[in-house]
Amino acid sequence: MSDYTQLLQGKKIIVTGAARGLGHSFAEAIAQAGAEVVMADILTDVLQSEVELLQEKGLPVSGTSLDLANQDSICAAVDFAQEKMSGIDGLINCAALATGVGGKDMMDYDSDLWDRVMTVNVKGTWLMTQACVPYLKQSKAGKIVNIASDTALWGAPKLMAYVASKGAILSMTRSMARELGEFNICVNTISPGLTLVEATEYVPEQRHQQYVTGRAIQRPQHPDDLNGTALYLLSDLASFVTGQNIPVNGGFVFN
Fold it and tell me: What mean pLDDT is predicted for residues 126-140?
């Protein structure tokens, strides 16, 4: 990874879904870039172990429980972050329900599963953002980065609830950017391609290969491939960038 050790110096950032996968990668990169980080996740045992490992590396991270389907949990996590860091400058909404949501066509989709995906991925993102906004206003230069998916750009089959939820994230980002611009809060989206993380282990190898061959840069996508874009959007370098979606997928689909 390139040397970004001063890029986020003094910033205070929350990363949701940080126990593993993309969220964990973001949290570590952000801390390496000089920010203090609160890592939030529903997987509390895994989270605690990962927080301790990063602390052993000398990184300024802490962890807190977060259930995006529970508003009280969301408020408690944000209150913890505010108290722990004495401020919040940025938020990455990475947590999402992804595992076990695919493999059925639209005619066979389970309505209960649909509701769970929307509750966590859409409503949870909104509530988490809503809880952070009062503190981001105080920052005077707040940054919100929502994690969507390139599946929302090309309409992946047999994954409708997830695709719909990520399409909602794209639309919510634009609306948030309009409403929060007067407070100098920038809101943007990153749309990853199929990335090699725990949540994609269920995806058949043939599908992974289809992604690789369909990309302009024909190789598998790793979590580190997204870190630079996230760091940029959280930094002062992106202070006039808002309401945008940046696909980071090696050129599998263009925005």
Answer: 97
The pLDDT tens digits for 55-100 are 999 999 999 999 999 999 999 999 999 999 999 999 999 999 987 7
**Residue 162 a catalytic site member:** yes
Copy the structure tokens of residue 148. Answer: 């969507």
| Residue located via tokens 């090696």 | 250
Cβ contact 64:33 at 8 Å: no
Cα–Cα distance measured from residue 39 to residue 53, given in angstroms and rounded to the nearest whole number: 13
**Hey, what domains does the chain have and what are their CATH numbers?**
12-248 (3.40.50.720)
| 158 within 8 A of 253, measured Cβ to Cβ | no
- State the pTM of this model: 0.94
- Catalytic position from the list 162, 202, 211, 232: 162
Identify the pLDDT of residue 255.
78
Measured CA to CA in angstroms, residue 153 lies from 39, 164, 213, 255 at distances of 28, 10, 18, 7
Tell me which residue of 99, 73, 84 sits closest to 21, measured CA to CA: 99
